[in-house]
Amino acid sequence: MSSGNSSVSTRDVLAMLSELASLTTLEEESPQSFKVRAYENARQALEGQAQDITGLSVTELTKIKGVGKATASKVRELIDTGSVEKLERLRSSYPPAIVELSRIPGVGPKTLKVMRAELGIDTVEKLKAAIANEELRTLPGLGPTSEAKISKAIERLGLSGKDKRTPIADALPLAQDLVAALEANPDVDRVAYCGSLRRFSETIGDIDITVGSTKPEAVMDMVRGQSVVSDLVVSGDTKTSFLTASGLQVDVRVVAPEQFGAATLYFTGSKAHNIALRQRAIDRGLTLNEYGLFHQPDDEAAADVKTGALVASETEQQIYDALELSYVPPPMREATGEVEAAADDELPDLIRREHMRGDLHYHTDRSGDGRSTVEEMVAVAAAQGYEYLAITDHGEDLAINGSSEQEMLEHREHIAEVQKSHPDLTILWGCELNIGPDGGMDYSDEFRASFDYTVASVHSHFDQSVADQTKRLVKAISDPSVDSIGHLTGRYIGRRPGIELDIDIVLEALFTFDVALEINGALQRLDAASDVVRRAVQRGVKLVINTDSHHTSELGRMEYGVLTAQRGWVPKELVVNSWPRDQFLAWVDSHRG
Ligand code: DGT
Ligand code: CA
Ligand code: CA
Ligand code: ZN
Q: Which overall architecture, per CATH, does domain 96-156 show?
């Protein structure tokens, strides 16, 4: 065992390897380079380790399958010194603005290099200007079509301007780590992340963390000492704001423990929801602010210097109660009718994590991109208490990742074997069908229809017209073998725009053919998006909330799918995988007709 720099966690190691892979891709101008593959393989191998990898020596690390000697040394270098020399060098050659450029669809490593060398483009703003001036098209391999494509991607991803936002997949782990660190501090009474992150917006402007403590100075000291702090923006007695290395701002505020409810309510927002609550308070002769809900002072003249008697402040629940409102879950606090509904006791009977009885989008190592065995995936699902699950490895059309008919039949035998050791869990032999450019799917009609359960999804051809994409989806939905549509648009939030659809037509088809719409819980996807989900609910379309796990470490994503469903006002009764097993299986039977 080597003793290391104790502040480096497994997550830091995994993040270091991801960053090394993405920056090396830029340097070597290819994601297929030997080094990039080595970092990615090592990352996957280490992610799958149950043991604490930060205590392992280089020799011990190398014994893990998938971890080479050079990569193992970099892992140790990080643990021992807190940084990795090669990564530091790459970071200075490829600063965050360049990495951001490289993520724009249409801007590959080679294009990026020419853009930088020939036109001095090193920010999204400069790229936009070059497109506006029709300069980009003068570069080798680029033309008006690529200019238009890149320009559209910049716009759709919201990458430019001062309103630039961070995908939730980048912000949430950071906030979770910070909250966990604060929770472990004995001076901290209560702590929560608030703002758009708690409302589960898909992109985040900044992270807001609220701490309840009687020792604000000690808490602020601790926050300033965290390794994620790159630049301090505000350093006050009860508020610290800092920027992370990637430029994301974090605001941490400390309040008295008895004001924690009022503060979290205020800082969770949304601003519009707060305004509606404040108005309701005023209508009742009360005042609501970040310190609490108060009676308005009798003495009008004193109103601006002191507040009246306290009504509630300790918990959000107490404040909603005092305002004669049902408790509004954070994902619904967007002032889109929830305050009125809460006043009339007409909030939907919202789906919650504990309602979920199955997960219906699961990959195993049968898929090229799956990394855990059937046995491992099933064991974790069983431990979560699920009643049923569908193993949906990729169909044959998905080039490297798919399985032939023969392989699928062997897989069915294998699943049947595993089923024997899990009598309380119904394991369905499923498939993730690939929706081709014209809506056609894998295998013969008969074979496709023989699966116990299917999810059909788009994985390619993102650039067709709205009309063509809509036709493509409707064709898949109307296919008798299809039970659900997975990750509707194929987007990666802030990275890859999804396909564009006429949503009303798609929802109509889902309703007509009684096919369920997936809410994919992968943080990069959260697809269908919550606004589409809300429209689906209004149309009475059935929903299914899945993790799309490729590894046992991803099965916890169910919670993120549920939060997205809550943002879409999804009632429990529309979620097919919250239903008891018999009801769910009867639906699969019936809707296939
Ligand atoms: P973001 O950061 O742009 O993703 O969105 P939020 O909602 O996190 O907004 P942020 O960070 O500016 O403020 C956090 C919360 O604080 C916000 O949701 C509501 C509350 N808040 C901030 N400014 C105001 C204000 O002027 N009036 C009211 N009523 N609430 C405010
Ligand atoms: Ca915020
Ligand atoms: Ca803020
Ligand atoms: Zn999948």
A: Orthogonal Bundle (1.10)
